[in-house]
Amino acid sequence: MKHFLFKSSYIIASLLFITSCDGPPTDEKLLTTLQEDVVFLAADDLGGRAIGTEGEQKAAEYLAKEFEKLGLQPKGTEGFFQSFTVSKPSNPHEEAVIGTDGEGITGRNVVAFLDKKADKTIVIGAHFDHLGMGGQGSLHRGDSAIHNGADDNASGTAALLALAEILKYEELKNNILFIAFSGEENGLWGSNYFVKNPTIDLKTVNYMINMDMVGRLNEEKSLAINGVGTSPSFVPVFDQINTDSLKLVTSESGVGPSDHTSFYLQDLPVLHFFTGQHEDYHKPSDDSDKINYEGLVKVVRYISRVVTALDNEPKLAFTKTKDSSDSPRFTVSMGVVPDYMFDGKGMRVDGVSEGKPAQAAGLQKGDVVVQLGDSTVYDMMSYMRALSAFQKGDSTKVVIERGGQKVEAVVRF
């Protein structure tokens, strides 16, 4: 009997060893693990992963265990965790006081290190928190409901784990710090805290990659890359590694509504990957069954190629960009979800909110706004400039292109 038990134990141990040494993941394996991770993180059991909730804690513990399984080193302040407390949680438009003392909401970043014995480190990040039951930030107009955030941002968090699994097999001249941020939805709290309380020397950071909403690759295979102007080394590599024929839509600014901004403001080159806005954004309908998992594999593979293509570069030079902080300020909204992946003339509508001016004016998904008032709309920036001219109570003409025809309507703010 003892001999049988010993033999069985030996077989099990051998199988575990073989499993742990099976080399870089295939696309099929990535597809499976990405789906498993998204399904877990976007399950109702986690209650929408709002910062400071039990669901956020469960998600953080899951990520720490996955990092440990991959053989990464803990690089938080408490193992893989880096806790922080925000003392002004009620209004994200006010400047939040983020630290470790005082009363407020406590969140946890999850930080892991892939040691390649190098003197430079790449930071790869994604936020794992979401909106919980909704509240401020939600675009849902019904009763309170769980906002599972499958695309926003279980998709980016799953991609973070997948990249760790791929890159640990690569011979790199950069270490990699993987960070799952909390508190992003409330105002980039976790990344803001990290850059002011880094667990590695920020002077060794080469550049930062952020993945926020990368799970809805469309039929055109459009992948937005923001921050391409923050280093002259970025743009030359994008097309030469585009073996999946992705439609790359780039923008230069290092500032945007996600965690890469915190690193850009520390004078570090950044890239933000994004597969586009959709009607389920910040709604309970952003569920795991709507993720394009095959597309997510393509995005992960592309980002891994970016990392390897840049690996032979010396420490990347940083370039300041003309940022969205210079964008016009406006006090009214049409109530549309812009299609940020559209690269034609005008501003294409990807969704229309109920009870808002655009719906009252008859605008529909797919319409392209080409004129607002006296202003011609060429792109998102010109649309925002046009919008900034109006106040609540104003009315103006809007011209849209629909099915090859120009249609006029009147919008009342």
Automatic annotation (TrEMBL):
Superkingdom of this protein's organism: Bacteria
SMART domains, per the entry: PDZ
Coiled coil: none
Pfam (any one): Peptidase_M28
SUPFAM superfamilies named in the record: PDZ domain-like, Zn-dependent exopeptidases
Boundaries of every PDZ domain copy: 332-404
Protein name: M20/M25/M40 family metallo-hydrolase
Organism of derivation: Algoriphagus aquatilis
